[in-house]
Structures are given as C-alpha cells and as structure tokens.
C-alpha cells in the first residue's frame, strides 16, 4: 500500500468483513471487503475501487453514513450526489436509464434512488435492506458513503456502517420532523463515536421552503445532539429530488446562507483533535521464515514508528527497540498509521498474533474486565454468564457478560432494568474476559476500543460494542498462592480429582445413576461429593428459576463450585439437566485435560414422561410449569460425551458400573 492513502478500519469492519486475516495489506483487503459482502452491487468491483482510490490518492478521504427513516430520501440523496459529481460509470448510467423505465417511481425520468437500492428484492419492497458502500469524489476530496437502511429491524446494518464513519448525514423529512428513527439512529451515531452530523432537512419543496419549519426541526435536533454529546451539527435545508442545496446554493432558500450538502462534505474538518496517541500495531501474524528472522506483521492503526524507537509488547509489558521496518518494497525509515509493515525488534520477545506493539512512552492500557456498551444484533437473546468470543483488533478472547447494568431505550435514552437483551437492544454492561487484553477506551481509539461478540457455536457476529473503561476490581484482585495445592491434596487422598458431569432430561436417571456411582466409589475408599440440581437450587441457587438466562447462570455457578471441589481433591458428581451445549463447554473449559467427564444420560422424552417420577411432566403438559425442559424449553443433547448411557438398554446399576469402570481406567 502506498503511503498517504488514508484508509482506516475499525475492529467492527475487520471482524465482519473478514478482512485481512493474515494479510500484509489490511487496507487493500478492507477496500475489497467493502466492495464485496456489504455492497451487493456488482459494478463496484474491488479492482475498480482500488484503481479509483489510487487515482485520487492524494486527496483526503471522508467516510460518512446516511441514515434516516424509510422514505426520507436517503437513496435519492446519494444517487444524486453520485450523479452530480459525475463519478458514475457509463454502463451504470445506461442501466439506470433502463431501470428507471421499468421500476422507477418517477414517470420515466431518472430515478436516482435506483442507483443505490441495488437489489431486485429491495426495489420490489421499496426499501433498502443492507448497507451499501459507494465511492465518489470531487476535486477536493474523495468519499466513501455507507447507505444505511431505515427500517427499525436493521439497526444492526446501521451500526455496521457507522463503525467506520467520521460523519453521519441524518435525513429528516421536513413534513414529519424528528421521528423515533431519527432519535434511534442519532443515538447509535453517538454510541459509535461519530462527532459530526449533517442534518439534512429534506423535502423542503413540499413545505414551500418555509424557514420556520426548518428552524423548528433544527432547534429540536440541536437539543437531541447536545444530550447525546454530538458536538458538531450542520443543518442544511434540502430537496434531494430537485437538487436544492445539494451541490450548490438554492434560489428557493434565500434565507439560508450556509453550505450546500456537498460543500459541507468537501470542507468539514473531522480530524480528531484529541491528544495524538502513540504507536499502535495490532500484530496480525508473526513472520518467521528462518531462524535468523522474526518479524511482527500488521497494519499500524495509530501513531508512527522509526527504527530505534522504544516499544512495549502488550499485554505482556515486555520492552524492546525497533530494529527494522520491513515492507515488500524495502525497509522504511519511518512508517505511519494506515501502513502495513513488519517490525523486527532488538530483543527476542515472546509476541504472538493478537498482541499489540505500542510506543513505550505512550502505551495502551491492559485489563480483563470492562464497563461497555453493547448493541445486540442476534435473533437469539444475549444471556449473561454465557461465554462468547470477543474480537478486538486482531485479538480474540473468551468473554462473558457478568452484569447487565441497564438497557437503554434508544428512543428516549431511558435506562431500563434487564436480565437479557433482545435483537437491536442496547445495554450498558460489565464484561469479564478470560485473559487480559491491550485496549483503549472507544472515545480515544476506535481500533482498540471497539469490539464484536461472536457466538461460539455458530460463529455468527451477535453484538457490537464499545469499551467505556476498565473496571478497577480487575487491577486489585490477584491470585493468592496456596502451599497445599491440588496435587498435594490429590496425593493425600490417593485419587485423581474428577468432575463427572451427568446431563439429561428431567427424570432421565441422572440422580439415580450418580447416587449409585457415589456409593460404589465411596465403598472403594474414594472421596466424593454429589452436586444435584434439586439440592443446589435450595441454597446457593435459590434466586434462580428456569428461564434460559437463569439456567445459564445456574450452570456457571455449579461449574465453579465443582471446580473448587476438584481443587480440594474430590471426585465430584454433578447431576444437572444442563440443557445447553455452550454452558457444558464452559464447564469443561474450567478443568484440565481428562478431568471433566461428560455423561449423557440418554432417555427419550417419551420414556422420561412415562416415568414422571415427580409428576412434573403431567403438570407441565397441563400448562402449570412454564419453560419445562423437553416440553417448551430446549434440551441440546451432547455431541461427543465421554460416556453415553442408554437407560432403555441397561438398568441403573449396570450403567453406574460403566461409569465406575471408566473412572478406574
Ligand atoms: N421448568 C423446569 N424445567 C426443568 N426442571 C424443572 C423445572 N421446574 C422445576 N424443575 C425441577 O428442577 C430440576 C432441574 O434443575 P436443574 O438445576 O438441573 O436444571 S437446569 O440444569 O438449570 O436446566 C428438575 O430435576 P430433575 O428431575 O432431577 O432433573 C426438576 O425437578
Ligand atoms: N436404566 C435406568 N437408569 C436410571 N434410572 C432409571 C432407569 N430405568 C428406570 N429408571 C427410573 O427413572 C427414574 C429417574 O429419576 P431420576 O434419577 O430422579 O432422574 P433425574 O435425576 O434425571 O431427574 C427413577 O425412578 C429410576 O428408578
């Protein structure tokens, strides 16, 4: 990549677009990522974009998003900007002409919205349903615009577009004024750190270019922006359809003396005046072609670097000096943000993918617990205590949400109590990671402060978030070393500590079999303990019910207790329905190799229901117990348990013997 090409990319785009895994040129890959998964319009192929960007390399780049409600005129605005700045490709124009005749809503005249609403399905519905990235340029500047859909359920796409933008064009229909959507989108704009809004009060022609209407809307919006901490608002009275105040001043608004939309986009200064942060190089891969060369490759996301500079590797905190800055075109004397480089260091430091190389004088911070804002983007709700992947910069770690402090009504900013989060909801949460990471608060650095959460089973991106601050408690709690450790306890008990985890439907036979195993082991002189769902729910977990969220927390706690018991040298028999794979995996990950033995007590629902030891199935069928496992709450059978016990094939005694044999092996 050539110096001077100003492409920035945030953690969001990387994780979503899958850009640059192991690539030496993230910026180029980002460009392609824009062209590919987001924009569904084939004309903007990666090559064309790269060529275009190269041609306009020396101009500054403004990334912006457009947002507003359906029918506010976003697509028309962008289409017209593209058209009027004459960056349209010839064939696109030809296609547009034909399309307008076929689909256009404007009696055979060119319909600019069709330039942007790429998909046939969208045209039929008359709405834009995905983020579409467009490139255009003028003599002053080049632009990348993300067109964000206006429909309520597509908040997720809007957040995707916003995560890389410096400015948001917020469209308001002059006849309607601020709508719920305007508030929602402005909230997300502020959440994702955009400080500049161009408020386009559109369709002014339909209110006779009435200044009072404009002033009233602008006044209301300024109030909202102030509450949200959006510092810079430029309002423009607009008719995107007719082009008033779009690229030049309109004769219809003599009372307006500000810039046109395009003039503002061309001249607005979006550079962050925040204190210049030092070098940040999230390591994408460690390049070790032979014994004598060890280089750390990645794209510099902030600051600059020269050979001789003192650096610190994070999170380890080890220091060294930069020896060389290697690129495909030879070594550099200095490299800047946006450049993909390989650094070699004066000392042998243990640095791996996901670490951050930072300037020693101005390092990033390190922590493993945070307060953060989360935008939930999955149809399945967020369950606190469940383990997800958190991807930040080039690092991926396991995370759980330890507390939802409150969710936020994005329309009113009201704070509401919540135990779980649904699609498109925003919440303020505490997060706990399984290892420390290098980070910066999102306000200061989007690259090291913005993250996504990934479902560990489906690999789907389920949330986007911003780190607000590290929790103090993380700094102040340390592991207390103990002299009598697990190995010592295990030796004195003459046994290998284990966690034997029985899972299965209610009435499958977990308790019966666990009890028999316990008796046998005890008779053999082993030190054991049974943790049974029914019992633990009378004490430690008596605050929990049977919602998905409560079951997740139930299992998390009992897994932690089982872990403590194995640390005490015991063989623990855990007998819980534990219906979700994710939590059984979480439990497994607490233990060492071979220590966790998953026993699937496999009894078909019909059989468990026939037994109905406690009469619960009958009640559940009668609608008296909501969320009953197997009836109206799911059971996810283990895929590869250490033992599967078929209770239709063998009796409880024989099955217990199989468990004991397994353990004694
Ligand atoms: N709605 C609902 N669904 C399932 N089970 C219910 C429910 N309500 C009460 N019970 C009784 O609670 C026992 C299950 O508790 P667990 O802690 O093992 O459940 S879970 O692991 O959190 O899913 C379970 O005990 P077992 O029959 O021993 O499995 C039931 O007796
Ligand atoms: N092969 C078997 N293994 C375990 N239990 C069985 C078997 N066959 C019948 N049962 C009966 O099924 C019931 C299982 O109940 P329980 O052990 O309390 O189940 P859970 O703890 O899974 O809810 C008991 O009444 C038990 O006698």
Automatic annotation (TrEMBL):
Family: Belongs to the TRAFAC class translation factor GTPase superfamily. Classic translation factor GTPase family. CysN/NodQ subfamily. In the N-terminal section; belongs to the TRAFAC class translation factor GTPase superfamily. Classic translation factor GTPase family. CysN/NodQ subfamily.
Gene3D superfamilies: P-loop containing nucleotide triphosphate hydrolases, Translation factors
Chain's role: APS kinase catalyzes the synthesis of activated sulfate. Catalyzes the synthesis of activated sulfate.
Pfam families, per the entry: APS_kinase (PF01583), GTP-eEF1A_C (PF22594), GTP_EFTU (PF00009), GTP_EFTU_D2 (PF03144)
Active-site residues, record numbering mapped to chain: 578
Broadest EC class assigned to this enzyme: transferase
GO MF, one annotated term: sulfate adenylyltransferase (ATP) activity
The protein's name: Multifunctional fusion protein
PROSITE patterns in the cross-refs: G_TR_1, G_TR_2
Chain ranges of the Tr-type G domain: 59-273
Superkingdom per UniProt: Bacteria
Record-listed E.C. numbers: 2.7.7.4, 2.7.1.25
Binding residues for GTP: 68-75, 147-151, 202-205
This protein's UniProt keywords: ATP-binding, GTP-binding, Kinase, Multifunctional enzyme, Nucleotide-binding, Nucleotidyltransferase, Phosphoprotein, Transferase
Residues noted as binding ATP in the record, renumbered to the chain: 504-511
InterPro entries on file: APS, APS_kinase_dom, CysN_GTP-bd, CysN_II, CysN_NoDQ_III, EFTu-like_2, G_TR_CS, GTP-eEF1A_C
Catalytic activity: adenosine 5'-phosphosulfate + ATP = 3'-phosphoadenylyl sulfate + ADP + H(+); sulfate + ATP + H(+) = adenosine 5'-phosphosulfate + diphosphate
Gene (name only): cysN
Pathway(s) this gene product operates in, as recorded in its UniProt entry: Sulfur metabolism; hydrogen sulfide biosynthesis; sulfite from sulfate: step 1/3; Sulfur metabolism; hydrogen sulfide biosynthesis; sulfite from sulfate: step 2/3
